[in-house]
Structures are given as structure tokens and as C-alpha cells.
């Protein structure tokens, strides 16, 4: 897949999937109305978490298009296993970034309903990763994915990154 096609496909998927999960549903739940105000430091933390999550999400999507020459969408997978950028630290940065955005919105807007929603979204992400994504990646990339899985944690980022990341 050409980089321009991969970039366009990734951008479209970004709007559709994370856009719905971290944008449309939180808006639907809150209409962006604030609740009983959380303390200012909590709301500032929420703003920082939302911005950091959004930045991480964009970086992870870019890595799919640039390094992987594909998209995160299952019908248009990457040609190469993505192991650089945030993927050196954790195998699931996109899911973690979406959860950071939702949690940040909950704190920023003082809306606990979004914390419940983030918990449900996280459970759905975990089920998808273990039930579909990991088996699919193992079939597609074989030993390379298994080496990556052993070297890089799935959900809790390792700092510093793994020293011997498998390269595609």
C-alpha cells in the first residue's frame, strides 16, 4: 500500500473509530456540559490527560501509515509490523490513548459518567485485543510478532523502551 493511501485510510479510520469512541459518545453522554465542579487541579489534570491522549493517538496512527504502510482498520492492515514510536514502549498505545482522552474529559468536565464509560470501553478493548487482534497478528506476522510480544508489554508502558525490539 502506498503511503498516501495508507495515510488517507488511517485518517478516515481515525475519524470513524476513535472519533466515535472518544468524541461522539462522550458528547452524547454529556453534551460537553460540565457537572458539579471538580477541584481546579483535577480539571487541569483532565485537560493535560486529554491533550496527551490525543497527541499519542495521532502519533500512533501516523506510525501505522508511515512505518506499517497500512491502517489500524482490520480490512486494511499494515504490510509490516509496527514496532517503532510509541510501540517501542507498549503494544496497545492507541487503546490507551483513547482511554486517556475519555478519562481526561471526565476530569475536565467533572462528569463521572465518563469514567464509567471509560471502564466499559477499556473492557471492550481488552476483549477485542485478546479475542481478535493478538491471534490475527500472530497468524499474520508469526515469529516476529511473538518476539515483539515477549519484548514489549501490552498495557503498562515500559520505560525505557525494550532494547532489542524486533525490526520488520
The chain-level structural class is: mainly alpha
Mean pLDDT: 93
- Helicity range: 55-70%
Poorly predicted runs are: none
| Number of individual domains | 1
Overall strand count: 0
Question: Radius of gyration in whole Å, from Cα?
Answer: 17 Å
Strand residues, percent = under 5%
Main sheet overview: none
The ordered H/E elements are HHHHH
The CA-CA distance between the termini, in Å, is 16 Å
Contiguous helical run count: 5
Broad shape:
globular
TL;DR?
The protein has helices at residues 3-30, 40-66, 93-109, 113-141, 143-151. It has 168 residues and is mostly helical. The protein has one domain.
Set out the fold topology.
Layout: H1 3-30, H2 40-66, H3 93-109, H4 113-141, H5 143-151
Helix pairs in contact: 1-2, 1-3, 1-4, 2-3, 3-4, 4-5
